[in-house]
Specification:
It is globular and about 65 Å long. It is of the alpha/beta class. About 40% of the residues lie in helices and about 15% in strands. Helix 5 packs across helix 14 and helix 9 packs parallel to helix 10.
Length: about 425
């Protein structure tokens, strides 16, 4: 074990050797926490075959499980020691690029601030905006931190220059493998905490509680899904107008970091109250829980109580399961904090309003007025702007592929490495309406 910058660290087997960084024309890539998959390790393999250098900081035991290759350092220190450690590492190793998932996690926010102060590029990844078989690859961050333009004219120009994307699903992911690896990662990190005694997870709830709750919820969805589908079918057949409010995970950083809400309860009350006071009296509000919600809080009870409070108990419905596609098909509009369900709704031509920061919250796509006016004034997205938006994000901040199933993972790894290694690219800054991750 060595003490560096006040932080306990030890090199992983075959770990990184101190050095001046990459040779001229080559990059030194530092990987932090990413998807719970071999995606980062395989991107590093591909980059190193092309002559680049790749490093990794393992913050917990789970990180070690998905980086079974050289280049790792096991950080064992406290949060207070992280700043000096990561700054020294970046300087000592001549890091040129950092890659991570979850730019709002504590360790990542600190590393990003250090990187930007030194001109080191930061690339973030996550599940794609154009799901199911796309991956996001953005510079600096997502949502409010995204460098993707919000100006409609800039997006139209990007769209004119971008090719028409193939939006047909080409790759399937492996949800079972994703679930198993997620459990192995978090439970092993919890049980073997003493290997990284200073680590503090960004997770809100204990992993065991989350997995038990999510498993029970998934079983419940199988029973409740048909009930939700019948309700939607009945409203559609009766030509009853309805609006949709899809709930996000309360632990989601999109909610916690990129919205004015510290919890999910507040937007639930806000939306129901606004609906009660301003939506057409013949309309309904359908609130759909996230399929992977762990059930730590009773959202059904909270929705029913709020609806009774505002006098719309008969007009507000809580859905646990059912077809999202069918739900959106018949809707008169979608209210979201910043869920990617908003993109699905825009793609179907439905009005959308966001309550938080979202990459798709653009004049001409989403309703820009207050929520109280949305119910009666919202209009569908402008089709030309929507088409340009899809072409632009597909070309600039999305790549094709998936994190888990082999065929799609291979495609994602190859394209990620290609974009990261395009060091002599000649595109302008995103402020000039162009970005390639």
């Amino acid at each position: 074990m060595a003490v560096e910058g006040g932080a306990m660290t030890d090199p992983a087997p075959g770990g990184a050797q101190a050095g001046p960084g990459a040779s001229p024309g080559r990059g030194t890539y530092l990987f932090l926490q990413g998807p719970i998959t071999t995606y980062f390790a395989e991107v590093a393999d591909t980059l190193e075959r092309a002559g680049h250098r790749c490093l990794r900081v393992n913050l917990c035991f789970g990180d070690r499980l998905f980086w079974r290759r050289p280049g790792a350092i096991n950080f064992r220190g406290s949060r207070e020691a992280w700043l000096s450690f990561v700054a020294d590492l970046i300087d000592r190793e001549g890091v040129t690029d950092i890659m991570l998932l979850g730019e709002q996690r504590f360790y990542h926010k600190v590393a990003i601030a250090v990187a930007k102060s030194r001109g080191v590029r930061v690339t973030v990844t996550d599940f794609g905006y154009l799901r199911p078989d796309w991956i996001t690859l953005e510079r600096d961050g997502m949502s409010a931190d995204s460098r993707f333009p919000r100006d409609p004219e800039a997006i139209l120009e990007l769209g004119r220059r971008a090719p028409e994307p193939d939006l047909q699903q080409r790759y399937r992911d492996n949800f079972l493998l994703q679930s198993v690896w997620d459990m192995v990662y978090h439970i092993s990190s919890s049980l073997l905490w003493f290997l990284h005694p200073g680590y503090r997870s960004h997770q809100v709830h204990h992993p065991a509680l989350v997995y038990i709750g999510t498993g029970i919820h998934l079983l419940r969805i199988r029973r409740n899904g048909p009930i939700a589908d019948r309700l939607v079918a009945g409203l559609t057949a009766a030509k009853t107008p309805y609006y949709v409010f899809p709930l996000q995970m309360e632990t989601d950083f999109q909610l916690r970091a990129y919205s004015p809400f510290n919890d999910l309860k507040t937007p639930i009350h806000k939306v129901i109250r606004s609906f009660a006071e301003h939506a057409p009296k013949v309309s309904r509000l359908l609130i759909k829980i996230h399929p992977l919600d762990p059930g730590v809080r009773n959202w059904n009870r909270m929705v029913r109580r709020s609806a009774r409070r505002w006098g719309v108990a008969e007009r507000v419905h809580y859905l646990d399961g059912g077809s999202l596609a069918h739900l959106l098909d018949g809707s008169h509009g979608v209210v979201t904090v910043n869920s990617t369900v908003g993109i699905w709704a825009l793609r179907a031509g439905h009005p959308v309003v966001t309550l938080g920061a979202a990459v798709f919250d653009i004049e001409g796509l989403t309703f820009q007025g207050p929520l109280d006016r949305f119910w009666t004034e919202a209009e569908p997205p402008h089709r030309d702007l929507w088409d340009a938006f899809v072409r632009a994000i597909a070309a600039e901040i999305q790549i094709r592929g998936v994190y888990y199933r082999r065929e799609g993972l291979n495609v994602a790894v190859a394209e990620t490495a290609r974009r990261l290694a395009a060091r002599d690219r000649d595109e302008a800054d995103i402020g000039d309406a162009h970005l390639t991750a």
